[in-house]
Amino acid sequence: MGIIEVIVLGIIQGLTEFLPISSSGHLVLFNKLFGITEGTVTFSIAVHIATLVAVVSVLWKDVLEMIKKPTGKLTLLVIVATIPMGIVGFIFKDLLKSFLETGVTVGFGFLITGTVLWLAEYMSKKENKNKRLEETSFLDALFVGCAQVIAMLPAVSRSGSTTGGALFRGLNREFALKFSFLMSIPAILGPAAIEAIDVIKDGSGLGVEFFPLIAGMLAAGISGYLAIKFMLKIFTKASLKVFSYYVYTLGVLVLIDQFITKIFFK
Hints:
Blueprint: H1 3-18, H2 23-34, H3 40-58, H4 60-68, H5 73-91, H6 93-102, H7 106-127, H8 138-150, H9 158-168, H10 173-202, H11 210-234, H12 241-261
GO molecular function: undecaprenyl-diphosphatase activity
Pfam families: BacA (PF02673)
Protein name: Undecaprenyl-diphosphatase
């Protein structure tokens, strides 16, 4: 991967990790567009670590509070919400990895994301429970965690599915988004650590030059930081339906290429 490619991919990763439009789906599309096949695993680990830093940088007060109170309610809610992903990831690791490499589910994944976002907005206005931390139950957290499992499929947005799941359960919009971002810490850290171990065991090297890799990480970290700040600012006022229109359109275009034109998905 060249310097321009890694910067573009880093920006894409940072933005789409926290906007509800799927980072995995966009990375698959841009890898296809650039014809990239080498070093994708190493790059994925690097940019995910960069976005992890972005989350901690913005929500450092909450993260510090969780560290100080490892048995506090917020910490336990995040742990409970992470359990379903850990179980499914352990059992179906190889299958999920093959989906990511081939991109076979990408078109449908974008459509699933659009549907989740649309339904979440509808249900949030219908329920209007406005739960905050004190009112949020462990059953709520488990439901949001199950919604995160769906996002293990490429092009299903993790932030979209978890935020959508939180709104389904009547969580306050601001707390729903913050909870989704805090859930991203173990969701990013766990798979990145496993991928790093696999790369070390494989012994095939980085596959990406050091300085382009650093450039990609900086691009991902900065764009991720801006995306988080943007979502925290507009989420209480903006509708998720805006993002659903985008991913619906993208999903249809991908399916057309996968089944008809076969330009990128051959």
